Amino acid sequence: MIKKIRNGGTANGRELATQMDYLFSKSDGLFGNAVVLDAEGKGLSKEERAEIIGDWSEAWRGSPKNGHTTHLLLSFPADVRPDKAKLIAEVWAFEMFQSGEHQDDAWAYVAALHTDRPHPHVHMVINNRGLMRDSWFYMARDHVFNLDTMKERLVAIAAEEGVFLDATSRAERGLMSYGPSRGEVETARREGRAPEPRAKEGRALDAALVTFAQTAETMRGLAQVAALTGLTEVHDRIAETEQALAKGGILHRFQGSADAGRANLARHFEGWMAGAEDRIRKLGAPERNAMRKELYAHATEIALRLGDTRSAELLRMPPQTALYGTAIAGDRVMAGDTVTDLRPSARDVLRNDLVAAAASFGLSSDRIVERLETGAANAWEERAWVRSDLLVLSGRRRLGLRDPAQAKLVAGDLQQFYDKAGTLIDRSVSAELGAQTYRVVSTLRSMGRMMQLDGKVAFRSDRQAERFADDLRDRYGPTIIGDLAAGKIDALAQVIESPQERLLIAKAILAAGKAHQALRPTLQDQTETKQHLGFEAGGGKDWDRER
């Protein structure tokens, strides 16, 4: 997945020129902070290469043992699209070498996407001399830039894009050999045969056998988690892996990483969940909805067992942004349990406007279209999408998320996009529902969310509460506030399908009445409320005494 090319550093401009010729003679894409950003660019011209070589080598002094540059290779599975591999590598490289997130410096780098083999791969060349603090870039086991950490971040970033990489070493996968050398690969290609690995011997073989035992123990723990999630295919594959490792056999690659240790299990689980969500998203609507409910029911239990109460809470919560809480399926716009039928022309306008807005902010139009097909199932899935948007946007803006000022700029731009998307959705849906009805329903749903999150609801002013109460009565009749406060929720069934959400809204109305006279039920309503909603109105206090 990530390999530091042995003897890949360059000692002078001439060697760097030779390396650049190889990288960009057959590249199908490029990126890096040392090149002009061009999403359609395939390679660098001879003049562009010469300019980079001159800029870099001009500041080189001495003869470092491993050269003035570092050459890295990122390989992806054959089923990953080249443009997806490039995007993942670009976000990863920005975090590693430009954002300052791992070390307080930045390094110039160029990268080339190659597709001349069945699996897409990206070559990166980094100038080892830091741009800001003159720090020397190097990789070592105990250094901030170590192969394990760099792999883990690549796996996490790929998971956010729906791609699942195996971050384990060859020993952890049960391979008692080294990968074939570059020379062996080229020789095998000329001879028309498969490259042969080099067998491990002596101490290297002993270490590999120890790794087999450790990884087999880890696999047993992961198999238990897999079984609990109901993902039979993954469970069976992990169980197969455990058996093969115990015998010291050769393993088949499986989806999901095998991070050793309990501490990393939560991270593994998060990436695993993202994979399950991606597969479920590709199913037909009826099967997809059923599978989602089953998956998240299991996932909540697993998160709690891992001690991750925050994730468990997010798995239960609905999406918090209008954009990712919305799905456009056929001629319907679905926001939570609210379904609005749109005319085909209105649906197309809304989708096109959202895609255009995403593109104008530098986000992937294709990814937005894909997400709009289903919407986020909950705040957990929404969080992963927001993280992905932040990383993409920071890369496009060349801003570091670790720097508070730069992170604030990125977050501000992204919030502008979400606000604009919310406005577009509101405008489209309100045109179909009618302005007043939509305003009332939106406020009721917001009150329900506030009740779920905070356990209390209040408007900014009594006047605002009075206007809402008037609109609510105009839409549903003069007795609606008393009906809702008493738990009579059928009046909302046409616009809010979920009985649970309607009941939550009824509780929100009752809670709002504690703060606003206009939403306060009658004494008779309060008595009925105790029976229907199952808790004391006003926390057991008399309403009149709180006036």
TrEMBL record:
InterPro entries: Endonuclease_MobA/VirD2. Residues 176-200, 521-547 are annotated as: Disordered. It comes from Stagnihabitans tardus. It comes from the Bacteria. Residues 183-200, 527-547 have a biased composition (Basic and acidic residues). Pfam families: Relaxase. This is Relaxase/mobilization nuclease domain-containing protein. Residues 43-133 form the MobA/VirD2-like nuclease domain.
